[in-house]
Fold:
Amino acid sequence: MEVLPLFRRCGTGPTEGSVRRIQMLDRSDWLLITDPAAGVTVTIADMLVLAEDVHAFEDENDMVRRVTSGPGATTPYDWEGMNVALIRRIHDDGLPATQAELIAEMQDWFADQSDGERIPDSRTIRRRITPVWKALRREGE
Structure:
């Protein structure tokens, strides 16, 4: 609570604050800072959050992690698997009448693969399917 004003979203908070107590990683109790008596002055740049705490928070609040580009990018969704399912669906049955139907089928595929726990929203799937949809619709015209 001592440094919470540093994290105001609107940017109107102070640029530094004083920490008067700390908690060691391996302890559950708080230690009071008595020297200096006013506590230790810190800025936002001094604040760190452990990656494991960020991931736990995201999991607890059902948040999607940011996807980074390049090798080793992490995402909670099996996009490569979806691409294979998409190709097989189009190869075996052709395109459905609407893109919305195809998106719904891919959401069903994600639900089947993750026991209904990890299903991207339709907008996210649409962004990945639209280039394929447009290219195939153009060829069919």
